Amino acid sequence: MKTITYLWAGLLTISLPSLAGNEAIVGMNPVAVAFFLFFIAATLGITYWAAKRSRTATEFYAAGRSISGFQNGLALAGDYMSAASFLGIAGMVATKGYDGLIYSIGFLVGWPVIMFLIAEPLRNLGKYTFADVVAYRLQLKPIKILAALGSVAVVILYLIAQMVGSGKLIQLVFGIPYELAVVIIGALMITYVLFGGMLATTWVQIIKAVLLLGGATIMTIWTLAKFGFSPESLFQSVKETAGEKWLQPGGLVSNPIDAISLGLALMFGTAGLPHILMRFYTVPDAKEARKSVFFATGFIGYFYILTFVIGFGAVVLVGLEKITSIGKGGNMAAPLLAQALGGDAFLGFIAAVAFATILAVVAGLTLAGASALSHDLYVGVFRKGESSEEQEVKITRVAVLILGITAIVLGIAFKNQNIAFMVGLAFAIAASTNFPALLMSIVWKRFTTAGAVASMATGLFLSVVLIILSKTIWVDILGNPEPVFPYKNPAIVSMTLAFVVGIVVSLMTREPEAEEKFEEMKVRKYLGIGAE
């Protein structure tokens, strides 16, 4: 680990300046380099510290269940306020206007669902992944297989969005090629998770959350100061610069069914995201799990209000032409606004904050995906629940390497997509595959293994296939003239049918043993008796 730390510090110090100017967009600036190197050095130091404390499976997956509710609330916020939030939503508001708000609201309103329905049962019933809860009173093997496939599908799509955002960001600041930037991010992500596990990931997320909230607050205050601290003056300037349509709905989602589908995905997808659900196992008990959701909701809600001001501020102070000239997805609107406000020095600071944002999220995602492959698939299916902790952690580290390389390759392939939009698709898979089975397994006594398998398979198959047949893949990537599936987000079809199929199949089959265990599960769910 010490060798890796020295290697990274030396490599970044030497290689970044030498690559500057290769395809420079705004040029190299020493402030940006200083911020970036400081953050990387600090997080590698944390990883080195955490590596000495992450030897058992519980320490590696769940930070030894030693994180407090407040710390986990900050880490949850750090895990959730991704590049899609900071770069994607600000870019969406800047390039599409009012409809960017649907992402801000949609990302936020899923948290009460977690607070009241998911957090406490998840902490009391599970061990490392949400599949532990679904399989608590059902048959282990089929549940674990589908849970692992669903989790990996969500993680990969989410990772692509983060890699695209990070590649564009590093390219903007340092002027190095996009592909090289993605490789550097991927290598750092692998280093954090491979050696530091959940403990390093948690503290990287806490630092990132503090930096992001502070950076976004400064940007918002600075932007509003340009308009006399009057939101009305800001909106009037947007109207004069981009037209009245920028302040009206319909710029992004003109079809009402598309709007409902996207809203469903964002609202219920949060409760199915494997890297968010996994965080509830890092706290000691259900009380701390609830407290962490309370703090996370406050931090996240405050942050999304700021992204709206940043997006509209970019329209006026940067201009649409400049934003879209760097990438048609508009992902660089926030960094360009920072440059317009405070020059290259402030751009360097904000870029370092966004960089921290991306690294923290990709680390959490990679750990969740690797846990699904090792804990659910390898231990739960191939070893039938019997494996040493040492072997399980070893398999997790191999899975981290595989996921990291996959994320780098796909991040390069999806270079020009808007990252908030891509995360919306990841939410659709989570809302369709994981959320229905998780909710029904907690609240419905008659839910059976056959019903769970049918629900998860339906949600996963429909959400992935409909995304491929939608305009995003079928037209934009594969080059076909018209999409087969007319809507941009599949959740209204895939999530609804996942619930319907799960209910119908459960009613057609009986599982007396699972029904008997439901009463036992209620005691543990509410009182935490027997919880780890």
From TrEMBL:
Keywords: Cell membrane, Ion transport, Membrane, Signal, Sodium, Symport, Transmembrane, Transmembrane helix, Transport. The keyword Cell membrane applies. The chain crosses the membrane at residues 30-51, 72-94, 100-119, 145-164, 170-194, 206-225, 259-281, 293-320, 345-374, 395-414, 420-443, 450-470, 490-508. Residues 1-20 form the signal peptide. InterPro entries: Na/Glc_symporter_sf, Na/solute_symporter, Na/solute_symporter_CS, Sodium:Solute_Symporter. It is a multi-pass membrane protein. It comes from the Bacteria. Its main location: membrane. It is found in: Cell membrane. Belongs to the sodium:solute symporter (SSF) (TC 2.A.21) family. This is Sodium/solute symporter.
